[in-house]
Amino acid sequence: MHPSPGVLVAVALVVAVTVVLRVRSRRKRTAALAAQWQAFQQHRSSGQGQLLRVMRVYQHGRRGSKAVVTWCDTGRQQDAWFWNWHVPAGAYLLVNASSGYGPHSRNPNVLYVQPGQVRAWVPGQAARAAQRVGQ
Hints:
With 135 residues, this protein is α+β, with helices and mostly antiparallel strands. The protein has helices spanning 5-45, 124-133; strands at 50-61, 64-71, 77-83, 92-95, 98-102, 107-113, 118-122. α1 (5-45) crosses α2. A hairpin with a 4-residue loop joins β5 and β6 (107-113).
C-alpha cells in the first residue's frame, strides 16, 4: 500500500520547515558567538590581561579545575589551576594571574588563576563563529 500524495506533501513540508528552522537557529547562534568574540577582542585591546587558551582540562575538583593552557602571544604551554571554576576546554581568557610552585605535581611553574583574575572569557566556538562570518 502506497501513501497518498497528500501525506507525502505533508511529510515533505514538515521536513522543509524543520530544516529551515535549524538553519535559522544555527545562523542566530553563530552571529551571537561572533558578537561575543568581537566584544572580547575589544576588551583585549584595552590591555586588561594576557590572552590564553585552555587546551585541555585534565581534572575537575570540588574547588576548581586543572588544565593545560597555551599563551597565545608566545605559544608556550603551562599547567594551570583555576580556583572555584570548572573552566571549559577550548575557552579563550584574558587573565592577570601569577605562577608558582605546584606541590601536588612538584611543578615549579603552575599558573594559579583566582576568579577575580579572569578579566573576560569566551567559549572556543566564538572564535570559529567569528571566522565564519568574516570578522
